[in-house]
Write a structure and sequence with these properties.
Belongs to the PPR family. P subfamily. This is Pentatricopeptide repeat-containing protein. Keywords: Repeat. With 471 residues, the chain is mainly alpha-helical. The chain is built from 27 helices and no strands. It is globular, with a radius of gyration of 25 Å. The N terminus and C terminus are likely disordered.
């Protein structure tokens, strides 16, 4: 696939090859070179901190792949390798985590553990990789491990988070046939959360009936999952009823997660009065807000154009010694950016950096979108320089945003360069990437190039479909 993309890009413009090389050296490769010496020195000699740092970089991933295929790397330092695996799992970088795990399994000191598999399965669920989860589960069985409740619950999550509810329910049924591995309240809570995510509230009723039959009491996590599902679906009456059921249940009580669900649900719906009412109600229950509560309120006030109230929340946070996080600043920057308040947006970005809060890809996406909308492509260039001089981890949404910005500005060459840089950083293009580029080509009257890209996108989808059918 990578070869087809490279050939296609070459056919569009031969002169673009040299430009893209320079751009990649400037944009993507320089940061990789900084770790090349460390990566070539071997993992065994590196300290734990150095190894973890190296394994985070894209160049080191290639090193891991080489070592995974080598028979001479079976005596690596256990603590460092396990720390690197844990780091990759926490960052939800599933490609890296699976590569490191493959290397881990080759070590002479390796012992299979259900806990490791449970962590990996939970990560794959968050990343929506059900196929990888199935393969990993089979690998665990091949190593002679008996799945625990935690492992099965993680597998239920991996299927359910991807919308494969039939497989999730089937996994729960499999648990019932395994000795000492019956599903517990957390398994059912995960299942309910997945059903709520895809608005299958009819299935939730089925799960609750089954829990009652098995004499499994709902806990706060169960109720919060149901309340969250109703809230995101805008089913406020059912959400309120679920809260009443929760309060009447002697085994659990509303908490800050419940509060945040109500604030977020009514705030996102633009029902500010009700959001404020429930905020006060939870205060009377003795439930105190946290930083997430305030971030949600800032976003809700911002969407409603209530900037004075938004500022009152940030002022309250300062008085109560709540330290703003990157999410807080990202929310404020996004609000002002979408409103076209470029000057205010810039002020908060500068304040964010001044206070030592490190911007991430979401920050830069908001800035680029705002500048692009305002026709300030020169400021987009400035953001690119910020990114090049930072160690921020870029992702596909960022590249989509920046590609769209240059495409709308008619800078086709820069758009192509960024597409190649995207591939260099191993950020896979998605349908949004292709749509942005096709739109840019059509706007510039480059219908032939747009058609080539559309054909390639269709071919990629067909290839993926054939691969899945063959699995």
């Amino acid at each position: 696939m990578a070869l087809r993309w490279s050939c296609w890009m070459s056919s569009l413009s031969s002169s673009n090859k040299e430009i893209s090389r320079k751009q990649r050296r400037r944009f993507g490769v320089e940061s990789l070179k900084r770790s090349s010496k460390a990566a070539s020195g071997g993992l065994v000699k590196d300290s734990k901190k150095e190894l973890s740092r190296i394994l985070r970089t894209e160049s080191a991933i290639r090193g891991v792949e080489k070592k995974a295929n080598s028979s001479s790397n079976k005596q690596l330092w256990p603590k460092a390798l396990l720390q690197a695996l844990d780091d990759a799992i926490k960052r939800c970088r599933f490609h890296t985590a699976l590569q490191i795990f493959a290397l881990l399994r080759k070590q002479y000191w390796y012992e299979p553990r259900c806990q490791t598999y449970a962590k990996l399965l939970m990560m794959l669920g968050k990343c929506r990789q059900p196929e990888e989860a199935s393969v990993l589960f089979e690998t665990m069985l091949s190593e002679g491990l008996k799945p625990t409740v935690d492992v099965y619950t993680a597998l239920v999550s991996a299927y359910g988070q991807s919308g494969r509810l039939d497989q999730a329910f089937s996994t729960v049924e499999d648990m019932k046939s395994v000795v000492d591995c019956e599903p517990d309240v957390y398994t059912y809570s995960v299942l309910i959360s997945c059903c709520a995510k895809f608005r299958r509230f009819d299935l939730i009723e089925h799960v609750l009936v089954e829990m009652s039959y098995l004499d499994i009491q709902c806990n706060s996590v169960t109720y919060n999952s149901i309340i969250d599902g109703y809230g995101k679906a805008g089913m406020f009456e059912q959400m309120d009823n679920a809260l009443n059921d929760m309060i009447e249940n002697d085994n659990c009580h509303p908490d800050v997660f419940t509060l945040n669900t109500f604030v977020g649900a009514y705030g996102n719906a633009g029902q500010i009065d009700k959001m404020e009412k429930w905020y006060d109600e939870f205060q009377l229950m003795g439930i105190q807000p946290d930083i997430t509560t305030f971030n949600m309120m800032i976003k809700s006030y911002g969407k409603a154009g209530m900037y004075k109230k938004m500022k009152s929340v940030t002022d309250f946070m300062e008085r109560r010694f709540f330290t703003p996080t990157v999410v807080t600043y990202n929310t404020v920057i996004e609000v002002f950016g979408k409103a076209g308040e470029i000057e205010k947006m810039d002020q908060h970005f500068l304040k964010m950096k001044h206070l030592g809060v490190k911007p991430n890809s979401i920050t830069y996406c908001s800035l680029v979108s705002a500048y692009s909308k305002a026709g300030r492509i020169d400021r987009v260039d400035s953001i690119m320089r910020h990114v090049e001089n930072s160690d921020v981890i870029l992702d596909t949404p960022f590249f989509n945003c920046i590609i769209s910005a240059y495409g709308q500005a008619g800078d086709i060459e820069k758009m192509r360069e960024l597409f190649l840089a995207m591939r260099e950083r191993k950020c896979e293009p998605d349908s949004i990437t292709f749509a942005c580029m096709i739109q840019a080509y059509n706007a510039q009257g480059m219908a032939e190039n747009a058609q080539k890209l559309e054909n390639m996108m269709i071919s990629a989808k067909n290839s993926l479909g054939a691969k899945l059918i063959g699995c």
